[in-house]
Amino acid sequence: MLCRFAAAGRSSAKLVAPLGCLVSRQKHTLPDLPYDYAALEPHINAEIMQLHHSKHHATYVNNLNVAEEKYKEALAKGDVTAQVSLQPALKFNGGGHINHSIFWTNLSPNGGGEPKGELLEAIKRDFGSFANFKEKLTAVSVGVQGSGWGWLGYNKEQGRLQIAACANQDPLQGTTGLIPLLGIDVWEHAYYLQYKNVRPDYLKAIWNVINWENVSSRYANCKK
């Protein structure tokens, strides 16, 4: 189901679905962080970042490679039942890889504040103000039941920004059609060691490290 994933830091990140590409695909790898594990302190501590990146994201990558290998074998055998049974693993681990690769680039030790230029104008147009947008995305992210993600996405057909929530590791574009610009991970592994069960405190803190330059670049590229 998956072919290649655009590496973290590139302008876009999405699933590529042609089944034939599995025959000669490259294995997915864990992307390097563009900053040290401790770089986002005090807002997100080094222990969380180290475990989140080197353990959780790495597990999604490893499991995705295993699932794709099994899927390739099922394709070769014409085993449709096995292909269908592997879809949940491909979706979960593929989504986990996509979502986290976007997430790391959405954060920066030099982040925070507000976006500038075209993105800020689009936020004001579609949400009334930056403060209103921030309040809405925070509320949606707080309200995710169990594990999942809060997203700012771009609706290419309508030419506007939208806020959405996705459960578990469901990828935004693959499940809603929205192009992902800014993702906020609200799985407990993203904050529990520092913020315990108080998700709102984590969401209040994460705005201090949002990499608006990266988000703005994603917005500019998705409009081309």
Automatic annotation (TrEMBL):
It holds the Pfam family Sod_Fe_C. Transmembrane segments: none annotated. Residues 27-108 form the Manganese/iron superoxide dismutase N-terminal domain. It catalyses: 2 superoxide + 2 H(+) = H2O2 + O2. Gene3D superfamilies: Fe,Mn superoxide dismutase (SOD) domain, Iron/manganese superoxide dismutase, C-terminal domain. Mn(2+) binds at residues 52, 100, 185, 189. The keyword Mitochondrion applies. Residues 115-218 form the Manganese/iron superoxide dismutase C-terminal domain. Keywords: Manganese, Metal-binding, Mitochondrion, Nitration, Oxidoreductase. Belongs to the iron/manganese superoxide dismutase family. Homotetramer. This is Superoxide dismutase. It comes from Leiothrix lutea (Red-billed leiothrix). The lineage of its organism: Eukaryota, Metazoa, Chordata, Craniata, Vertebrata.
